[in-house]
Structure formats: C-alpha cells, structure tokens
Amino acid sequence: MTVKLTALSAVGSLVWGTLLAAMRVSPVPLMRGFGTAYVNIVRNIPLTVIILFCSAGLADVFGVTMGAEDFKVQGFRLAVLGLVAYTAAFVCEALRSGMNTVPLGQAEAARAIGLSFTQTLWLVVLPQAFRSVIGPLANVLIALTKNTTVAAAIGVAEAAYLMKTMIENEAQTLLIGAVFAFGFVVLTLPTGLFMGWLSKRLAVKR
Amino acid sequence: MTDVSVAKEDAAPTDDLVVLKSVNKHFGALHVLQDIDLTITRGEVVVVIGPSGSGKSTLCRTINRLETIDAGTIAIDGKPLPQEGKALARLRADVGMVFQSFNLFAHKTVLENVMLGQIKVRKTDKKQAEEKARALLDRVGVATQADKYPAQLSGGQQQRVAIARALAMDPKVMLFDEPTSALDPEMINEVLEVMQQLARDGMTMIVVTHEMGFARSAANRVVFMADGRIVEEATPDQFFSNPRSDRAKDFLSKILHH
After folding, report:
1. Is A66 helix (H, G, I), strand (E, B) or coil?
2. C-beta atoms of A128 and B151 within 8 A
3. What is the pLDDT, as a whole number, of residue B34?
C-alpha cells in the first residue's frame, strides 16, 4: 500500500508540479498569481491538516467520493489527492530553481527560431531544468515516501497504520518499529541512488 | 492576362525588407536608441559598428522583438512587428538570428538543434528536416559533428551550427549580434568565411560586429552608431578611407592603429 501510494502520488505531483512551475513563469499575470499563491499556501500547511481536510472536508462535507464505492478506496484516493496537492508545491519550487540555471540565451534562441512560449518551455527550458534538479527532486520523492505515513490518519492501511495495529496486538514495540524503519530505508535508499545515477547520466554539459 | 500581371505587380513585395522609423528605446534613464531611421533593402548586407554601449546590439535585437521599443515603428517585408503571440512567433521564424554566445540548445545534438525549428515551427516531416539539416551542416563545414552535443564543439564550430540552425528556417533576413566576439582569434575566420559566403549568395544580412575586415569586404553599407544614434551611413570604402563625422574618425583611429 505504501509503494502504491508513493508511486501514484509521485507521478501526480510531478505532473501537477510541472504545471505549477509553468504557471509561475508564464507571461499571464493571473496564472503567475495563482501559481505563487498556491505554492505559498500549500507548502506552509502541515500535511496532516491537508490530508484530514481531504477526508473530512472534501468527502464528508462536500461529498467528494472520487468515484469510489467503498470507504477504503475512497480514503486511498483522497490520500493520493492530498499528497499530490502538497508535494507538487515542492516539485514546483525545485523546478523553478532549475529553470533559473538555464541561461537566458537558450530561451531567446528558441524564441528567435519562432517557437511559441509553450514550445520554448516544453522543448528547451524544462528538459534542461529537470536535469539540473534531479538531486533536489530525489529529496522531494524521499520525503513523499515517508509522508505517506500521514495517510494513516484517515485510515489508509499503509505501513504506519499496519505498524500501529501490530504494536497494539503484539506489544513488541521496538522490534516492530525497527522492522518498519528498515522497510522505509529499503524503499527510499534505491530512490536516492537511482536519482543520483540519473542526474549524472543526464547532466547537461555547457 | 493583363489583370493577372497587374495583380502580380501589386502583390510584389517592395525592395525594402526591414524598415525602422524613428525608433526610440530607454533602459531606465538611459536613452539607448534615439530616433533611429534605417532601411535595409532585399539582398543588402549592412554592417553596424560603433563603440561599446552605443546601442548596436539593442538595435539588432529590436528587429525580432527580443527587445521591445518605446516609440517608432519597425516593419519587416511591409508588415509591422506584431505584439507578443502567434503572429510574432511566425515573424521570428522568418528572421534568423545568430547570437554572440551561440546559444545552441545544450541538451540536444547538433543535428537536433538544426532540425528542431523545422519540425516544430515549419511542420516539416522528420526525414526532410534531417536531410536539410545535414545539407546545411555540410555547407557550414561541420557535417562530421552532427551527432555530438554543443559542449563538445569548439566555439567556431558552435557558431557555424548556430548559423545553420538559423538558415534552416529559410529566413528572409539574418541578424548577427557580434557573432565573433566570443571566439578565439583563430576561430573567427572560419565563421566570417561562412558569413561571407552567405553574403555572396544574396542573403539580406544585418551584422553587428567589431570585425572591420568583414565590414570592408562583405558590406554594402556601413552604419556607424554612437550614444544611441546613427552618426554616419556610408559605403565601406567611403567610411574607412574618409569618415565624415569626428566621432567616426575618433573611433577608427582607436581601432585601426594597432
């Protein structure tokens, strides 16, 4: 459950984060304003509050069920929604700092051959920005993996939830804690190593 | 029959390709372009020279609106420069630009650099685009480097790729913004030769440069700028042997006597 939650949220937050970053550099003031406001609000709210809001606020008050029939599926989808909304703000900021490493001349050259703003961003600026922020993005993804534990708060049976149940039943607190901690290291360590390898491989030489 | 020929005559573009009329631009308090009037006809090679900070690069960059202007008009092939948007992108595709710092797309190979605009802007199919790109790379003498990345090339080679990238769009006019200023001396000539060939082939060119040799041999007209104004316009022969303004005399005496 933890892996599935992480994978879906990672994909979602990369997509949404990229869109947010695009908004923050767009020439349309309204989009820029929205992007800036979103990032500054969302990244300053504790994740627990966001996840609880998704569950209690969206589901219970507004009746958003994310097309799910039973309570467990609904909880899972809402948890993904909350994690995406939260992590995307960090992805956006990492990407935006990556865009600042791309020399202005790259965008000028792209515009000079007639590419539109979107094409310039998509074909020239973002590919280079991505490569320079793979390291920081690895941090975000590792944080995301660990943040999935917060989903336990709305009853999603991910690792922390299982751990709590097991501790209640078994009373072997230390051992169970250690096993779960090790489990997370097993999940996140390869992420870090893989991203490190990727960033070396894809590095843009100037 | 006669109707057709008349219509043709009407539609025929005038010979004035780039027309600037009383163009003004400020950078804050600095008046970088002051009442610039300049007309460049089809096939003409105009070299813009002048001391640093005289506004020559800015002038070059206003022509494809990489810099906006505060007042005046700029028209290319009879059409005024459009506002930011699709029309402007279309116009930029028709105006080739070569930068001082090359600005090749660092994450793409040399070949992809020359193909990108053809595929994404001109919607050429991939195969044709590659053929054309290879032909152009051959023309500028870097065909063997097609699959390398820009950072693996020398400055001179990069700049020639940049020229090929601009040519791939079949531009009506080419702008060169100090194309050799970032190059080691031994690489300047390989770039100038490509530009000279281009001039001989009849390309309309606006060249901002410090290469007086190029100005002498390839230019139809020399435009001398100082402090944001066009001080003098003349043929290269006239300008270099007999400059009229004191400002130009002073400038030439500083650069030609060493």
Report:
1. coil
2. no
3. 93
DSSP state of B258: -
Q: What is the pLDDT of residues B72-107, one digit of tens each?
A: 999 999 889 888 788 899 999 999 999 999 999 999
B99 touches chain A (CB under 8 A): yes
Distance CA A149, CA A184 (A): 10
Best of B62, B76, B107 to disrupt the A interface (most A CBs within 10 Å) is B107
Cβ burial of B242 (10 Å; 0-12, 13-18, 19+) is exposed
ipTM for the complex shown: 0.85
Give the three-class secondary structure for A102: coil
The secondary structure of B196-234 as a DSSP string is HHHHHTT-EEEEE-S-HHHHHHH-SEEEEEETTEEEEEE
Q: What is the mean pLDDT of chain B?
A: 90
Please tell me if residue B90 touches chain A, with a CB cutoff of 8 Å: yes
Task: Return the CATH architecture of domain A2-202.
Answer: Orthogonal Bundle (1.10)
Measured in angstroms, the CA of B192 and the nearest CA of chain A are apart by: 20
Inform me whether the pLDDT recorded for A67 exceeds 70: no
DSSP state of A61: I
Q: Is B181 on the interface with A (CB under 8 A)?
A: no
Interchain contact, B103 vs A108, CB within 8 Å = yes
Beta bridge partners of B76: B18, B79
pLDDT tens-digit series, residues A125-171: 999 999 989 989 999 999 998 888 887 777 777 777 777 777 777 77
Position B113 confidence tier, pLDDT thresholds 50, 70, 90: very high
Which residues in chain B are contacts of A108 at CB distance < 8 A? Answer: 66, 99, 103
Token output for B244: 């009229």
Asked if A201 reaches chain B (Cβ–Cβ under 8 Å), the answer is no
User: What letters, b where the CB count within 10 A reaches 16 and e where it falls short, cover B179-199?
Assistant: bbeebeeebbbbbbebbeebb
Residue B32 or residue A59, greater confidence: B32
Let me know if B168 is exposed, middle or buried by CB neighbors in 10 A (0-12, 13-18, 19+): buried
Full-model pTM: 0.84
Give contacts of B86 with chain A, Cβ < 8 Å. 116
Chain A residues 17-36 with CB within 8 Å of chain B:
27
Between A11 and B14, name the one with better pLDDT: A11
Domain edges within chain A: 2-202
Mean pLDDT of chain A: 86
